[in-house]
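User: Thanks for the earlier help. One more: Methyltransferase domain-containing protein. Can you show the sequence and predicted structure together?

Assistant: Of course, both are below.
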Amino acid sequence: MTETNHDQAEYWGKSASGMKWLTFEEQIAASFAPVVDLLLERAALKPGQRVLDIGCGLGDVTLAAAQAVGPGGHVLGVDISAPFLERAGLRASGMGNVGFALADAQSEPFAPAERDAVLSRFGMMFFSDTVAAFANIARALKPGGRMTFAAWGPLAGNPWFYLPHRAATDRLGQMPKVDRNAPGPLAFHDIDRVTGLMAEAGLADIEAQAVDLNLTPPGGLEGAAALCTRLGPAARVLAHFNGSEADEAAIRDAVSAALEPYVEGGEVLMPATINLFQARRAGTA
């Protein structure tokens, strides 16, 4: 693997925090299923197309895209985490139109002009050089091929982030400030900044839209609160301050209380703002 994002490889492939995504695989897939639906709807894949899924993780988008393109198409899922790819491969067992590759998409020499479409759910925000990554990924597209990717919108529109963060910092204190545009989950919150980077990378027909939807964490209020405490901002605050089991329980209870307004029929429907980006590789097919 040609690697230019070593810190990301270490985090997602080896750290305890990254490995939690394996532990909570089913809960995460259920929570983010509406984002997969949005991505596939906007990508409008066709039977027989060849697709590249960037930051495929455990394969949620890869498998959904494989169904869309059918046996005559193909989907290659790319990720920087070997454990994630191992799990994704098990999920895709028996599917002849799916493959996976351990690769850093910013620098990997993909086969040029070989894919009809690029997809990504929350996989584009972590590159050390976003312009270089966009340009490299675009080279894998056929001329006129389309890139469609979803990223988190502004913090204020995403209680998935701000409610657990508030509960954790109220309990343990504030963490050091970070640049919100630095590589990380919220790095693409500013649509204008990201579309500018896409243009700088040479992409054409750039479109972007903030889409409001509901995340669907399973397990009712208790399950949603537990998931939000064990992943994301609350987990990072707990790790930073070496929080105790009592701290985790208190934070989970605070998150549960904060999520109560989003309970409908016993299930949590958590509002989210997703930035949806699309562009084409310059040229015509």
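User: Great, one quick takeaway?

Assistant: Strands lie at 50-54, 74-79, 98-102, 115-121, 141-152, 203-215, 263-264, 267-268, 270-281.
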